[in-house]
Amino acid sequence: MSETFYLTTPIYYINSVPHLGHAYTTIVADAMARYHRLAGDRVWLLTGTDEHGDKIAQAAAKAGVSPQALADRNSAAFREAWQRLGTTQDDFIRTTEERHRRVVQAILQKLWDAGEIYLGKYGGHYCFGCERFYTEKEIVDGKCPDHQTPLTFIEEENYFFKMSKYQSWLIDYITARPDLIRPERYRNEILGFLRDPLQDLSISRPKHRLQWGIPLPFDDKYVTYVWFDALINYFSALDWPDGERFKTFWPVAQHVIGKDILKPHAVYWPCMLKAAGIDIYQHLNVHGYWTLGGGKMSKSVGNVVEAFALSDKYGGDAFRYFVMREMTFGLDADFSEEAFVGRLNADLANDLGNLVARATTLIVNYQREAGPPAAAGPEEATIRESAATARRAVETAMQEFAFQRALAALWEFIGGINRYVDSNQPWALAKDPLQRPRLDRVLVTLADALGYLGVMLTAFLPDAAAKIRVAIGQTAAPRLADAEIGRLDRLPAVQKLSGLFPRVESKDKAAPADQPAAGRAASAPAAANPAAPAGPATIGDFRRIDLRVAEVIAAEALPKSKKLLKLTVSLGHEQRTILAGIAQHYAPADLVGKKVVVVANLEPAKLMGLESQGMVLAGSTDDDGALAVLVLDRDLPAGAKVR
Ligand code: MSP
Question: Is the distance from the beta carbon of residue 11 to the nearest atom of ligand 1 less than 6 Å?
Answer without folding.
Answer: yes
